[in-house]
Design brief:
Elements: H1 7-38, E1 44-49, H2 57-72, E2 77-82, H3 93-99, E3 104-105, H4 118-123, H5 132-140, H6 144-153, E4 157-165, E5 170-172, E6 186-188, H7 191-198, E7 203-205, H8 212-217, E8 223-225, H9 229-234, E9 243-244, E10 253-260, H10 261-266, H11 269-303, E11 307-308, H12 314-325, H13 327-332, H14 336-349
Parallel strand pairs: 1-2, 1-3, 6-7, 6-8, 9-11
Antiparallel strand pairs: 3-10, 4-10, 5-8, 5-9
Helix pairs in contact: 1-5, 1-11, 2-11, 6-14
Length: 350
């Protein structure tokens, strides 16, 4: 459990960083609420695809975002939530928002490596920080947000306030007693996570979250990453894979909310401000709830038989660090936006 004892200090720090943005966004929204109530009623029917199934913790948070948009807009924007597998698969969210098949989406960038290379840097490369305040500053003050708005904008998308989820861990059917045990394992790990594990000798597989349980139970894969511990809990993965490796692949994940640009342009300026404010509130909820849910998820899984693989040796830790060492150079060469993002990371690291 010491892996999750980051404490309230981090939450206070991130809330302090975002306090001004949230307050100003909500002030705009509340001020525009009066306008919305008297303006000509415009009925926009949006479809919002997310990564999770009905009844999951994160599914409920996305539903809350949809409800906030409806409430803040006085019903002028109606949002239908599409859960995992309901018309649009995880790997199809980005394309569906681009074409306008759905209006808004919460994509998992690791599933869209070929479509949007910068997204793999945005989500967080292996070995990245777990400090949420540091991440928020990177986006809001160090220049990442303008770069990503351009990257998504080139594809006909509006990039809105990103949200932060906790560390990424891998669960396996058999214990990992040393780093050598990763060799030959088939592990669900899309994007940079897959390349990281390939450097350890594993064979990465790209699967949607909804496919993990069945693939583990039938032997199609030997292990899987989750976007975080809550994913493993909500997917009941511990029923078919009981061993969690104690080193995280990434300290945190940062994911965006995206909107079809044509649909966005149809909104009046007050409604655009309302949707932006709702996503800012959503980002805050993701962060605060995630930290609570993470420790709860681990405790619940341990009551169902979850065990931790052996503590890594110094040699294991060194191999783990080496596996991610070359990824910055590789992803910097992917496209101009990835290079711009990584150039900022290098500057901050020096």
């Amino acid at each position: 459990m010491h892996f999750f004892s980051r404490g309230n200090s981090m939450i206070k720090a991130i809330l302090k960083v975002k306090k001004r943005l949230v307050a100003s966004s909500l002030a705009v929204t509340l001020g525009l609420g009066a306008v919305a109530s008297t303006a000509h009623a415009a009925d926009y029917n949006w479809r919002f695809a997310n990564l999770y199934g009905r009844g999951t913790a994160y599914g409920a948070v996305y539903e809350g975002l949809a409800k906030n948009i409806e409430t803040m807009s006085n019903g002028r924007i109606k949002v239908q939530v599409l859960y995992s597998g309901e018309g649009v698969g995880t790997s199809g969210i980005l394309g569906a928002v681009k074409t306008g098949l759905i209006t808004m989406g919460a994509p998992f960038q690791s599933m869209h490596a070929g479509e949007l290379p910068a997204g793999l840097v945005e989500i967080g490369l292996p070995g990245g920080t777990s400090d949420a305040a540091e991440l928020t500053t990177l986006f809001q003050e160090k220049g990442w947000a303008p770069i990503l708005k351009k990257a998504y904008g080139e594809q006909g998308l509006v990039w809105l306030d990103p949200y932060i989820q906790p560390s990424v861990y891998v669960i396996t059917k058999d214990p990992i007693n040393s780093i050598e045990d990763f060799k030959g394992l088939k592990i669900r790990a899309p994007g940079a996570y897959g390349k990281f594990l390939r450097n350890l000798g594993a064979s990465p597989v790209s699967l949607a979250w909804s496919e993990i349980y069945t693939s583990l139970s039938t032997g199609v894969i030997d292990g899987s990453i989750g976007s975080n511990m809550i994913d493993h809990r909500d997917g009941n993965h511990v029923e078919v894979a009981k061993y969690m490796y104690p080193l995280p692949l990434a300290g945190a994940q940062v994911l965006p909310i995206i909107v079809n640009r044509s649909a966005w342009k149809k909104l009046t300026p007050d409604l655009q401000a309302i949707v932006s404010a709702a996503t800012t509130v959503h980002a805050r909820e993701q962060m605060t709830k995630s930290k609570l849910w993470e420790s709860q998820a681990v405790a619940e899984m341990e009551t169902k038989g979850l065990q931790w693989s052996a503590a890594p040796s110094d040699a294991d830790k060194a191999a783990w660090a080496k596996a991610g060492a070359g990824l910055w150079d590789e992803y910097s060469a992917a496209d101009k936006y990835s290079k711009e993002l990584i150039d900022i990371l290098r500057k901050e690291a020096n």
